[in-house]
Amino acid sequence: MITTLLLAARVAKVFALPLPLRRREEQEVMFRLQKREFILLPAFIVAGAIAYGVYSKWTEEGLRRTEADMKSNLPLRVDQNTTLVDVKYDRTHKVYWYVIDKADQFDPQEKARQVQDGVCANAENSLTMKKEGFSYEYHYRTKDGLALTDFKITSCE
User: Fold this and answer.
1) Domain ranges of the chain
2) Which residue has the higher pLDDT, 44 or 130?
């Protein structure tokens, strides 16, 4: 035991540091590392929040521009009986409003099937619905505003 203490004292003397000071320095170094890590964690969190905010703003502005571009082309004749009259784009869904000229020539179930097939034919649409919970909503009305059908597509399964 005495030999170990003498050896420790010699090593401390070589480095010109008393033994307790070396331990204190080690503790200070560990504290500085922990302090640096403590500062870095909030910095990463803040950077992530800022990046998300910028992305969200960029996404929302893009959606507003796309919606405005689409609305500038409305009303848009889709076929002999159907006119797209309004749209709304959001981060979680898109909504379309149509006017049907001749309600007696409109089959709500067939229209819903056709639209579902069209939306799901696009792999990107299907993936967006599956991964992000995105949806497409459709409203069909007569010229007088009577509801013919309303439906929402939330998946392609």
Assistant:
1) 1-72, 74-153
2) 130
